[in-house]
């Protein structure tokens, strides 16, 4: 494939609303011509992103302007508006002469002075579009002028993200030091209030950057930002009040601090989970209302049936009936709630059997089914939305990279300029390999159809492929034959099944050995011979695999890494036993992890494990989402229930035994009776988290609720019942997510039985010496970075050292669920693309056609097709 070294003028030039360039001058790849027209505002109109601002129009009506980056006078004129027909093949682009204003150099339509500045602006804006598509950022937040761009770049770097995250975590961690504080972490009011104000000032700075970037109108339209701003104002006022009064007051609003963490860039998974929860609420609420309706009906019926029994405290009032049946829904008080009535009339069990059958076994499972169906639909719609959003971002970026001379595609020069901003850590060789991997048509220009794969191809990590099949190919013949035999051995089925048999025997041995141990100090002071035998076998296996496969190939497999880690831990455990290192005895317990290797034998087990590993990142975000709810409820619990649960606190309640603490003498012995439930309190944030986790598990959760209710009021039950409903929503979403992921993987495995999911995405590309020389020449002429030139020279020297004309590179990346979805929905995706193209075409036709009454004097309509 030839490398196009010449350059051209951008078809679209991006300017700010004042007609000035938003980027500072920088070294381009070569001399470019100043474009004859700008389409920044027209492009926004064609995308349906609003009309040019009034200030922009006023500046366009000026008789002459000065371009600050070149000092050329620019006159106002009515020029062509480029409305690109973004077809899949990217072949033709229609240019309509509408009445939108644009800047031209000295009233001419053709440029006369060269500059690389114009392309640099387009490169950066195109990279921003790709980032917005990848991060699912809305296009109305796109920076519109130089000030907005500076703020955007400042707000989109990892140092800013870390500052944002640090401020949010500091605000959350202050709950450890504020009253009621953890005893060991208590700080003075002046100290923690000052720290809070410092963190809030950092948040103010973040929002100022966001306001400068978005503008006031867009800032107000962004709902999450407005919620964050409102919470910030409340927190600021409260912190100042605490600092002035030098005493803490009831601050329930501290529960809203988690919004600062949710809004962090690194918590995008949490925001996605919360969004899906809110989207799943309508069908969930419908089934929940049905559940509560039946609960109230049964509560009324139970009150009339069982309230005449004076020994039945569960149905003495209608309130007690509702509470008892609500707790019964969690089975925490069953069969206790049934026994008083059952003792008088055995037929009363029918009431409880029917209630549990309807509520617990039917409606609760129906709730899961409805949420799962909704969640599955949301996942598919989310994938479609993100896919089309990325496609639109790619089209926006593409329009900024095509030139006036070659509007049919992107040359390598423009692609390289884009990648310098989009993937700044990518080397020069990797940029060219990415361009070549995208260019399926094998032409000097990259078409829009090829450019649509930019996200998938840009994520590949490129490495030179070894010319030899094995690492030992260049060794002497004797050594080669030895290592070749080892390679054949470790790849044979017999060797693999032998190791599975060893692992199974080891597992049975560990089980029998553990069963025969007694309580107490179960760690032996001497090294058992079984440890030595099995560890020796595993060490020999590890040595043979490393010798036969080579270190690189061995460590490239996830299962081999797992085997290596478990064997290393087993060896450390052996050292701990041999040298009596008690702190490291826990490593011995990790031996049974070898048994996980047996799951590779059956395909269904492999699918389960693969699904589990795929779910780990998402499960981490779901766990963080649950912790955020925990934090909010913990703050509320501390504010209302601090210090009310203690030993013997609930002697007048029905759960007095659970909180009783007695210390009395029986003969010559002192007997201590403890209920221990007084430890489940809200005296600080850590105790509150433990208590809330016990409420989540729901076993005997009503004991904590009744203990708090006996010390406060009946309204306290609303806190616990609300927490149960919220956690039920979160847990149902988690279960639905696990089911959706597993079902999706099963369906994918059935549909693609011949494909391997575990190997990731791999792509091979051949790079010739002539191509490298051409690219190197391009970088030298353009004054490219020394590191890029050095990297290209290194590849050339490698070719010369091995006397080769070509070098094969292997691009590899892990397979994501998005890749699996692309294959699962490939038939529907084409329909989505066609529908999306039709909507774009309709939007362009409606936005690009300007009524004749709006035409300025002397203007005329014309259309031209650039091919």
Description:
The chain is mainly α and 867 residues long. The strands form 4 sheets. Strands 1-2-5 form a 3-stranded antiparallel beta sheet. Helix 3 (117-135) runs antiparallel to helix 13 (349-401), helix 10 (268-306) runs antiparallel to helix 13 and helix 13 packs across helix 27. It is globular and about 95 Å long.
Describe the sheet with the most strands: 3 strands, antiparallel
What is the residue-averaged pLDDT? 78
Shape: globular
Q: In the CATH scheme, what's the topology name of the domain at 612-751?
A: Helix Hairpins
CA gyration radius, whole angstroms: 34 Å
Q: Helix/strand/pairing class, anyone? A: mainly alpha
Estimate percent helicity.
55-70%
Low-pLDDT residue intervals, each spanning 5 or more residues: 15-115, 850-867
Strand order of the largest sheet: 1-2-5
Number of helices: 31
State the end-to-end distance. Answer: 22 Å
If classified by CATH, what would the architecture of the domain at 612-751 be? Orthogonal Bundle
Keywords:
mainly alpha; 31 helices; globular; 7% strand; disordered C terminus
Annotate the secondary structure layout:
Blueprint: H1 40-46, H2 54-60, E1 64-66, E2 73-78, E3 81-82, E4 93-97, E5 101-105, H3 117-135, H4 146-155, H5 158-173, H6 189-214, H7 216-221, H8 223-245, H9 258-262, H10 268-306, H11 318-329, H12 339-344, H13 349-401, H14 412-422, H15 428-438, H16 448-451, H17 454-458, E6 461-464, H18 477-491, H19 493-515, H20 529-549, H21 551-555, H22 558-578, H23 603-641, H24 656-659, E7 661-666, E8 669-674, H25 685-697, H26 701-711, H27 717-751, E9 761-768, H28 769-782, H29 786-801, E10 806-813, H30 817-824, H31 826-848, E11 862-866
Antiparallel strand pairs: 1-2, 2-5, 3-4, 4-11, 6-10, 7-8, 9-10
Helix pairs in contact: 3-13, 3-14, 4-6, 5-6, 6-8, 10-11, 10-13, 10-23, 13-27, 14-15, 18-20, 19-20, 20-22, 23-25, 23-27, 28-29
